[in-house]
Amino acid sequence: MTSANIVNSQQDKLLQVYREYQALLQKSDCLETENLHLKEQVLEKDEELACLKSFVRHFKGDIQSLEVQQLRGALEARDGEIEELKKKLAASEEACQVAAEELKL
């Protein structure tokens, strides 16, 4: 192999690695954006949950009316939604960390 062929081969490899780097960088940016969105959703759901808990606490001593039971059901559903969002956020953050580690390589 001539030195020109070696240089061309190395340039091709460098270009390929650069393209992979750009793809990982873009993926990392997308994951960071998704993380921010998920964090905002978790905060919103936490606020809704706090309001519902406060409202349910207000009626806690009262007779169990259908409305209070429905509110408690909504509260439990929100708890489930928040947990799912937290799981998605954790998975997204982990994917972001993996992408960041791949960028370092």
* C-alpha termini separation: 29 Å
Number of domain modules = 1
Number of helices: 2
Rounded to an integer in angstroms, the radius of gyration calculated over CA atoms is 25 Å
Average pLDDT: 82
Helix/strand-derived category reads mainly alpha
The major sheet is characterized as: none
Strand share of the residues?
Answer: under 5%
Helix content: over 70%
Total number of beta strands: 0
**Low-pLDDT stretches:** none
Shape: rod-shaped
Series of H and E elements? HH
Describe this structure in words.
The chain has 105 residues and is mainly alpha-helical. The chain has one domain (3-104). The protein is 91% helix and 0% strand. The chain contains 2 helices and no strands. It has helices at residues 3-59, 66-104. Helix 1 (3-59) runs antiparallel to helix 2 (66-104). The radius of gyration is 25 Å and the shape is rod-shaped. 3% of the residues are buried.
Write the layout of secondary structure elements.
Blueprint: H1 3-59, H2 66-104
Helix pairs in contact: 1-2
Coiled coil: 68-102
Keywords: Coiled coil
Key words describing this protein structure:
rod-shaped; coiled coil; 2 helices
